[in-house]
Specification:
This protein is an alpha+beta fold and 404 residues long. It is built from twelve helices and 21 strands.
Length: 404
C-alpha cells in the first residue's frame, strides 16, 4: 500500500465532494465532519462522476439516479446501485490530504512496503505497511542507531509520538506502529488480547531488525502490549519502559480502573452500547478525553484532534478501541500465566508517569513491580496522562538516559 498526496486542506469543504487524481486513478474526495473519505469517482451503475452528486452524511448520491454509496466502505446502499465502488483510507497531515492506495502489482510482496515520506509537525517520516498474517500493520520509521519501538494507546495512533520521535532519531532507529485495527492498520477480527497485539509488533520488528533485541516503550494500552512482548518474546526485548499505565492482573485491589474512578473502563467493556452512542460523534467523545486526561490540554490541539478523529471515525475503529478494554479478563489470565511459567523479567525496566490530574503517578511502578521487582520510576511534575504529548522533551530525556 502506498500513501499518495492528492489535495491540500484548503481544497476541502465540509459536506462536499471534489474530484482528485492519484496516478492513473480518478477519485472522489468526500469531507464529512472534517474527516476526508476517498472513493472511486465513477458510479458502478451509470459511470457518472460521483463528485458531482449529493453528499448527505456518509452517503454520496449519484447525480444521474438515486443510487447511493457509503463513502466509508464503498458499499451500495440504495438501488439502482448494487455493486460497491472502491474506498480508500484518507488522512490529513500538515495541511495536505493523503490517500492509501494499492502498490502496483507484484511490488512489495513479502516485505514491508515503503511509503513516500510526507511531512508531519516535526519533519519527514517514512511510512510502511506489513502483512502480519492477521491483517496489515502500518508504521512509521525514522532515524538511525539502536532499535527502538514506540507503542501508543487509546485513543491515539502512532501520531502520539510525533514530538518524541525527532528527539530520539539521532541515536535510535525508531519504529512506531499503529496497533491492530487502529490508525491505518487493518484488522477485521475480534482478538485484542495484548499478546495477540504483541505478536503483530514482533512481526514488524523481525521485518525491520531481524533477530536483534529491541528497546520497547509503551504508553497507555501500548504499555500492556509492551509488557506482553517482553514476557512472551523474551529474547526480543532488550529494555522496557512503561508510560503512565498499569498492567492487567497485577494483583492490586484498585485494578486498572482505579477502583472505578476511571468510569470509561466499565463503559467501554459494555457490549455494543459504546459503539451506538459514539457513532458520528467520535470527535466530541475524544475531545473530552484529551482535555480531561492532559494536565495542560496540549493533547487537545486542532492538529491532534484532526488526526485522531480521522482515525477513529473509520468503520470499526471505535469498536476496535473498545475491544482493548473487553479483553482485560483474558489479558489478566495470560499475564499471570506468563509470570508463572517464565518468572519475572530480568531485563532493565523503567516507569514514567504524570504526577497530576489523571496521571498515574506512583501507581505505574506499583503495578509493574509484580512483573519486574527491580523496576525504577520517574514521575513528571505538571503532567497528566498524555505524557508523550504533554512532556515530550522530558520523556525523551528519560528514554535517552535509561536506554543508553
Amino acid at each position: 500500500m502506498n500513501w499518495t498526496e492528492v489535495a491540500t486542506l484548503d481544497e476541502l469543504f465540509d459536506g462536499a465532494s471534489i474530484a482528485v487524481r492519484a496516478g492513473t486513478l480518478e477519485l472522489a474526495l468526500h469531507t464529512v465532519g472534517g474527516v476526508p473519505y476517498a472513493t472511486d469517482n465513477r458510479c458502478s451503475h451509470a459511470e457518472a462522476r460521483l463528485c458531482e452528486g449529493f453528499l448527505e452524511g456518509h452517503e454520496i448520491e449519484c447525480p444521474l439516479h438515486q443510487g447511493r454509496f457509503d463513502v466509508r466502505t464503498g458499499e451500495a446502499t440504495c438501488a439502482p446501485a448494487t455493486e460497491k465502488i472502491g474506498a480508500y483510507p484518507a488522512r490529513i497531515e500538515a495541511g495536505k490530504v493523503f490517500v492509501l492506495l494499492p502498490l502496483p502489482s507484484g511490488e512489495g510482496a513479502g516485505r514491508p512496503a515503503p511509503q513516500p515520506a510526507h511531512p508531519t509537525a516535526d519533519g519527514e517520516l517514512e511510512h510502511r505497511s506489513l502483512d502480519t498474517g492477521s491483517g496489515s500493520t502500518h508504521y512509521v520509521v525514522a532515524g538511525s542507531g539502536e532499535p527502538l519501538v514506540l507503542l501508543h494507546g487509546w485513543p491515539h495512533t502512532w501520531f502520539a509520538w510525533r514530538h518524541v520521535i525527532p528527539l530520539l532519531a539521532d541515536r535510535f532507529r525508531v519504529v512506531a506502529p499503529d496497533l491492530r485495527g487502529l490508525g491505518d492498520s487493518q484488522y477485521a477480527g475480534d482478538d485484542f488480547r495484548k499478546t495477540a497485539l504483541a505478536s503483530d509488533v514482533a512481526r514488524v520488528l523481525e521485518a525491520e531488525f531481524g533477530a536483534a533485541a529491541v528497546n520497547v516503550v509503551g504508553h497507555d494500552w501500548g504499555g500492556p502490549v509492551a509488557m506482553a512482548l517482553a514476557l512472551s518474546h523474551r529474547a526480543r526485548a532488550k529494555r522496557l519502559v512503561i508510560v503512565d499505565v498499569v498492567i492487567p492482573g497485577d494483583g492490586r485491589a484498585a485494578g486498572m480502573a482505579q477502583g472505578g474512578q476511571r468510569w470509561h473502563h466499565a463503559f467501554h467493556r459494555t457490549r455494543d452500547l459504546p459503539e451506538a452512542l459514539t457513532a458520528g460523534r467520535e470527535r466530541a467523545y475524544l475531545h473530552w478525553f484529551f482535555g480531561e486526561y492532559s494536565q495542560s490540554g496540549v493533547a487537545r490541539t486542532d492538529e491532534a484532534l484532526d488526526a485522531y478523529a480521522r482515525a477513529y471515525a473509520k468503520p470499526g475503529a471505535m469498536k476496535n478501541g473498545f475491544e482493548l478494554y473487553r479483553a482485560i479478563p483474558r489479558d489478566a489470565e495470560e499475564f499471570a500465566r506468563a509470570l508463572a511459567e517464565g518468572g519475572t523479567l530480568r531485563i532493565p525496566v523503567h516507569c514514567v508517569s504524570g504526577a497530576c490530574g489523571r496521571g498515574r503517578g506512583a501507581e505505574t511502578l506499583e503495578s509493574v513491580a509484580r512483573f519486574a521487582p527491580h523496576a525504577t520510576a520517574h514521575v513528571i511534575d505538571d503532567c497528566g496522562h498524555c505524557v508523550p504529548e504533554e512532556k515530550p522533551a522530558e520523556l525523551a530525556a528519560q528514554l535517552r538516559a535509561f536506554l543508553a
